[in-house]
TrEMBL record:
Residues 299-332 are annotated as: Disordered. It holds the Pfam family ABC_tran. Residues 2-227 form the ABC transporter domain. This is ATP-binding cassette domain-containing protein.
């Protein structure tokens, strides 16, 4: 378990972390997300004791990480996967860390195997690819067989196999009853793996909730409608006060009513339907809606500012949000 209480970090005039209180519970993967500069890395550094809080506390499994009897067994951390001597081999790097942390040598072979680096374990780290370096960082985090694991952007540089592998690994760690905190800008990935979310913006908590509640809170029953009489059906729905996007190429999107109501209306007026598809809100859409006001470094597209984080990988934005026209009208 990780717990922060009124955790605050000030750099000069800048409040990087502002009165953060949250708990990361064991037995599930918790996603930690927020726009660039929101304070995620600072919070993680405060949890590990790499940085000192201005005020407030952060504990790991009930005590400050610096006070842990066997720190590597309490918390495994991936903060900067490149922090290793390039002339050293992966095996020697891990052996040195194991010796310093009081971890038996055989554990080095176990973690090399676990992250799939056994075959390249004697090559110098300088020749490692980004993905191999990332796997080594994860091996380092798991070396002490820790109760709690905290990984900053672990998916960076991993190929499709690597991404699937880490998804399974994190889910397995949580199923074993460990605490797993994971920061990532890859929303589609987080959506698959995280059961709980802590979202921060400008150093403050924006949401601390289950993934299911986060998504359903943003859900508006969006339905895609395709019909050869799309214009006519859209006008009828708009006349009933329903929010619809303008019909284009025989399709439009409806918000706030269930698909069945659209189907009934079409049937009642003899309108042929070619598609009626309910769309779930994605984590990316729900997240962008929540963090629109908390983006510190917003980029500008040529047309308009989408509010999306320019370097996050979450760049595609909710297209329906930017194109939807509210054609609301009074009931006929
Ligand atoms: N050592 C430092 N000195 C001064 N300011 C800092 C320092 N470390 C972080 N900051 C500032 O604190 C804020 C939070 O930074 P942090 O790196 O924690 O954000 P983040 O959420 O991890 O961002 P990203 O998603 O870009 O990694 C930023 O405005 C950053 O410039």
């Amino acid at each position: 378990m990780i717990e922060t209480s009124q955790l605050t970090k000030r750099y000069g005039d800048h409040l990087a972390v502002d009165d953060l209180s949250f708990r990361v519970e064991p037995g599930r993967v918790t996603g930690f997300l927020g726009p660039n500069g929101a304070g995620k890395s600072t919070t993680m550094r405060l949890i590990t004791g790499l940085d000192r809080p201005t005020s407030g506390t952060a504990t790991v499994n009930g005590r400050r990480y610096a006070d842990a009897a066997v720190p590597m067994h309490e918390l495994g951390v991936l903060l900067d996967a490149k922090a290793a001597d390039p002339a050293r081999s992966a095996r020697n790097h891990l052996r040195a860390l194991a010796a310093a942390g009081g971890v038996p040598r055989r554990r080095v072979e176990e973690v090399l195997d676990l992250v799939g680096l056994t075959d390249v374990a004697d090559r110098p780290l300088g020749g490692f690819s980004l993905g191999m370096g990332q796997r080594l960082g994860i091996a380092t985090a798991l070396l002490g067989d820790p109760q709690t694991v905290m990984l900053d952007e672990p998916v960076n540089g991993l190929d499709v196999d690597g991404i699937q592998w880490i998804r399974r690994l994190l889910t397995d760690l949580a199923a074993e009853g460990r605490t797993v905190l994971l920061s990532s800008h890859l929303m589609s990935e987080l959506e698959l793996v995280a059961e709980h979310l802590v979202v921060i913006g400008r150093g403050r908590i924006l949401a601390d909730t289950s993934m299911a509640d986060f998504l359903s809170g943003a859900d508006e029953h969006r339905t895609l409608v395709r019909s050869p009489e799309a214009d006519r059906l859209a006008r009828m729905l708009a006349a009933d006060g329903v929010v619809v996007s303008s019909a284009h190429d025989g399709e439009f999107e409806v918000r706030g009513v269930e698909a069945v109501a659209v189907g009934r209306l079409a049937a009642a007026h003899g309108i042929e339907l070619h598609q009626l598809a309910t769309r779930d809100t994605s984590l990316e859409e729900a997240y962008l809606r929540l963090t629109q006001d908390a983006v510190s470094y917003a980029g500008h597209s040529t047309g308009h500012d989408s509010g999306a984080d320019p370097t996050s990988g979450a760049t595609s934005g909710p297209s329906a949000d930017t194109t939807t026209t509210a054609l609301t009208g009074s009931p006929a």
